[in-house]
Predict the 3D structure of the following.
Amino acid sequence: MACVVVAGAGLAGLACAWRLQRAGHEVEVLERAPALAGRHERYGFVLDDEPPLPGEATADLERMLEPLRRASALRPLARRDTAVVSGGQLQPQTSPAELLGSRRFSPRSWLALASGVRRRRPGGRRADESLAEFTRREFGGEVLEAAVAPWCEGGVGCTPEQISRDFALALLRDQIRPGPWFSLVGGAAALREALAGEVPVRWGCELLALESQSDGVRMRVRSGAREHRIFGDAAVIALPAGAVPRVCPKLSPGEAGFFANRVELPGVTVFLMLDRPPRSLRTHRVLVPRSLNLTVGSVTSQHHRSGATPDGAGLLAVRLASRQVSTLSGEPDALVVDAVLASLARTPIGRLDVQATAVLRRTRAHPVFPVGHAMSLARFNGRLDPSPRLSFAGDYLVKPGVAGKIASGMRAATRIAQELSGVEAP
């Protein structure tokens, strides 16, 4: 039995620790926060800004929920349709067929879009490029601004100029694939709470520096005002990507180069609690084009999630447009809410009779998957100079959201277990 230290008590770190513990290893999780943050709940509303999960992405989660006795916590989403604000209306944009049939484009753009959708590999075998470059070349600027940019900013949390074409198309294929989607009853915070109850967590303990060697890992940590050293047979770093070089100053060249190029963007979500669902909003999600220059990037109807609201109530999760986050992130909650409500009043959603509000701010909400990410990640995973007894976990290694965090934690646990047992990791 080996002693493995996991730095970071987010979903990725806890999932990793949970799996290692079930494999028979001694595990301890280090977390800088003094205690587990409570669930984001107010007045019976569950405030969870994590996206729903496509059915094919729930395998790791289902395996985890069953022994946690929380199998019933994964429920089908009541609806998953999407609309985009266009011409003063909410136009459906859930499938390619709806996009083509919306009549929102000029004949030239419509023909380019129809031709591109029919092609098996739009654009042929080209080197990776930004999603914006690809869309503008293949379909034109009109399609970019009216359809692609709203999906990217409202659904992924970044602009199409920031994201890789290859990664974006893979993510889009997952999202438009037929089949049910699922949500977690109680939200991601409830799952984190359940996992934290299963593994030992040292709260209020911050990892300052880590050095890994062939015989184990040495860590300098801080608990309160006291610094001390701890040792382990192996470690997993489940911190935001930007923090990894700081706590691991002796990464191998292949690892250091990978982390030097990782970017994570902040995000702000405003929750609007209502007595009843708004009649003007009949889809699960609404995307807002950046050409409208509004504060809002997307609006998601959370009352379609099982157990998210009191009976008959409405709950909207409004994500700020990415270009507005830096402007409003430091403003008081009341000002952010006022800006959101004013923007919604300028859309077909209209003015809302809101009973209560909440603002959730994240400094690292959205990992960015830039041009060349797939190649960079492949080089990182296949690097010939990995730091011994050390692995990494985070959605930046897979894809954004709960599924990416869980999958990343599981993979990190597998790699460490294989290294400790002398089996070469794939």
Notes: The chain is about 35% helix and 25% strand. The radius of gyration is 22 Å. Residues 395 and 405 are 5 Å apart (CA to CA).
